[in-house]
Design goal:
Layout lengths: L10 H10 L1 E4 L3 E6 L13 H10 L11 E6 L6 H18 L8 E6 L8 H15 L13
Parallel strand pairs: 3-4
Antiparallel strand pairs: 1-2, 2-4
Length: about 150
Amino acid sequence: MLPAAARLTKSQEFRLVVRRGRRAGRSRLVVHALRPDPAIASSAGAVGEAASEVEQNTAPTRESTGSTRVGFVVSKAVGVAVVRHRVTRRLRHLIRDRLPALPEGTLVVVRALPPAAGATSDELGADLDAALRKLRIDRPDGPRIVSK
């Protein structure tokens, strides 16, 4: 389970990451990531001007922190509810182990594609690692994202 502080919850946050962030696609998933701009980011850890737009349009539900936050999009194209929830649980478990490798303040959206329904956790993990490496969002001073 991801802690509440590590979850994207508002549609505006998802929209922001998908529209302004970088994207890396694989056969089973697509990862969108929006890194903080250190020159613009506030001391509270906002993701530059883009995050301030989100904060102006919505009332905050909790204190904004500089922590990395992640959201998941698993549409009905992936399968019935049981399958979608299974894919979401697997992705949540996989990203939880990779959170320490991501820079503080990074916003990430993981979108599952229909082939994710039949994929194993190892296959999803390999796709997730490859997408994160392609986006080059691992910390230079922290743990590296490597595949098994």
